[in-house]
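dumping the sequnces here before i forget
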Amino acid sequence: MTLIVNGVEHEISSPSLTALLHVLREELEIMSPKAGCQQGGCGTCTVLVDGEPRRSCLTPLATVEGATITTLEGLGQAEELSPVQAAFHNRYAAQCGFCTPGMIVAATALIERKGGAVDRDEVLDALGGHYCRCTGYVKIVDAVMAASRGEVEPVADLPAPEEGEPDVLVKGSPA
Amino acid sequence: MAAETLVPSSADEAVQLFGDGTDLTVFAGGTILMPEIAAGRLKPTRALLLHRSGLDKLRTDGDVVRIGAMVPVAALAGGPDGPLARFAQQVADLEVRGAATVGGNLCASPGLGSQRGDLGAPLIALGARVRSAGKGGERTEPVEDFLAGDRAGRLVLELEYDKPFGSWSAQTLRRRHAHSYAIANVAICSTGDGLRVGISGIGPTAVRARAVEQSRNAEDVLKDVDPVDDAVASADYRRKMLIVLVGRALDEVGSS
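..and the predicted 3d for all of it:
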């Protein structure tokens, strides 16, 4: 079967009931979706399936045959962060970073769905299933609202990737 | 060994492949089964996946609302206001509601330390009927009868209920936590024909509280309902709170 992940078509050989999370991490070595609770309860494995946010740990591979999958890596690059990524960086919305991939993917889907500025309650509803064990919620919610209003300064101070660092990683990600 | 996976492309093919359900794991949204597989508690040998079976239609035929088994909980949460929408909005979180289905919610068995199947309460209150297939062929029956039977041997195809459903109330007790299961749910619909009272979140399946329908006395809920102890709440607490929730619901529909 085939999957289109971040614009690249892949032939997949994992068994059909494998969780999409493990296909991404172990077969395709796309590491931003994290294996957190693996029960659908923490949010950090969230990816977009045909544009809709889904828990990749709860998604059997067979149900997404031919689908278009977007992970955090597909939203922006270290040199050109997406608006939500840039807002998270500028507003210190990432601490340990483990929840950040799911938060940014779900927030991006929310802003896409609303097509403009979102308010605090809308962010809380959309991110209600995402856990930040550093408890950095205030800055996360502020960053999402700022990104939705287009209030994001360009990111100028990201360090260049280190020698030998795989280019699939967003600089500073714990992946 | 990898499981044999069956992916029917129509409802008829799904019914044929299901047979009597023996040695078959049925996947609707997968939100309950995938964690079981991840934890090593479930190792399917044959899996029936319904995502291409065409059972995801949500439509209104005159005064009858028809909900395919594979309609996602999110579609009900975003539907017209009523007891079903209210309870659907409280299921898990946005991403899980997008994957979870009404058929899966109806067939869910209790989890480790929690009860499932919140939507049973509003479906009972709405007088919903379940069309299912399995041994002995297809049949349509009230939700409460379906829940009291052998669900493992049935493949849910569709739910239906009649409009209008009268005045209604949806009462729930739960922690402020997206992934916490309910402590108790009460749904009541009141029409010219009388009351219908559905209770869920208190035991292995939702039940109809017929004694309350007759007496309109909240304390009678314990004649039909026997709450369980689990990690979410004690049976004793559930008994006390059920009487409160039923009382509020009766007040809200003007029947106390």
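Chain A has two domains: 2-74, 83-148.
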